[in-house]
Request: fold
Amino acid sequence: MYLTRLITLSALLMLLATSAHAIRIKDIASFEGARDNQLLGYGLVVGLNGTGDSDQTRFPIQSVVNMLERMGITINRSDITLKNVAAVMVTATLPPFAKQGNHLDVTVSSLGDSKSIAGGTLIMTPLKGADNQVYAVAQGSVLTNSFAFGGQAATAQKNHPTAGRVPNGGLVERELPNMLAGKSVLRLNLMQADFTTATRIEAAINEKFKSTVATTTDPGTVILKIPESYANHTVEFAAALETLEVRPDVQAKVVLNERTGTIVMGENVRISTVAVSHGNLSLVIKETPRVSQPAPFSKTGDTVVVPRTDMKVVEESRRLMMVPEGASIGDVIRALNLLGVTPRDLIGILQAIKAAGALQAELTII
Reply:
């Protein structure tokens, strides 16, 4: 009886350990066509406190003249001087399945030599997609969370005053076509293409629906044939499979950032047995100039600068240490910690271990 309970408990712990690493399909893959689209527009920010574009930036003046003409006001371009207007580029992201009347957050960035767009108001700006069609319009108060003030001798600035956001300032005017409606076959695209992960997704979906619903054509795509029970119910079918949990396979990779000394290792990184010796060489040079001058009231001699250089060379003595083979990422970390070096030194050691063929992982330097 006790042995049976022990076996049951061990099996349960193994199941929990396995499921702890499982990830929903919706977090590692997406349906083809269900994607974001970038929008872009040119607009004007008005109401600035003398921090707008200068006269040297001419296109804001032309934009204001054109806007006033559309409102029935005719004005000579040479007769207008602006200080409270800034030309900006407006960007936004149109999410999939966005409907008319939905609001978007927009980003506003200065184009000219404006010193600050804080406190300004973005006037109605059409936002176009890659097909040059207007999908949204943007308007509203610009929030920068910054300030910039200054005089002739000093200036004060916080954050970045020439770029800001208009929360919910975009309004969707044109809807994207529904790429899922009326289809009998769907394509599921993996965010990170991998043969093992694609195969596991295929197996999990087929197990869920008890039939051959999913097939793989390449490591980045899973083809889904909608079952007859879900005909004309594409949304329900997508909801049923995107919550399935799959354990994705991750490639063994080590990422090194030499600028910050950051080292990131994947779960599958392994190191073969290798011997490592690492010593630092420190060179300190100190210049101390001294002045030699003749005695007071002397008839001969010149005042000269005599340089004095102090140099110190220190080289650490390190023994050759053996790094044992690691069967897990924890073994690899413990073996590298035995070297007792800094992260920046460890970057050089990992590069040397990779060159020796003992690092069983892809090495990426950023």
In short: Residues 1-20 have pLDDT under 50 and may be disordered. The chain has three domains: 37-144+157-172, 180-246, 253-292+305-365. The helical segments are 2-19, 59-70, 195-209, 234-242, 329-337, 343-355.
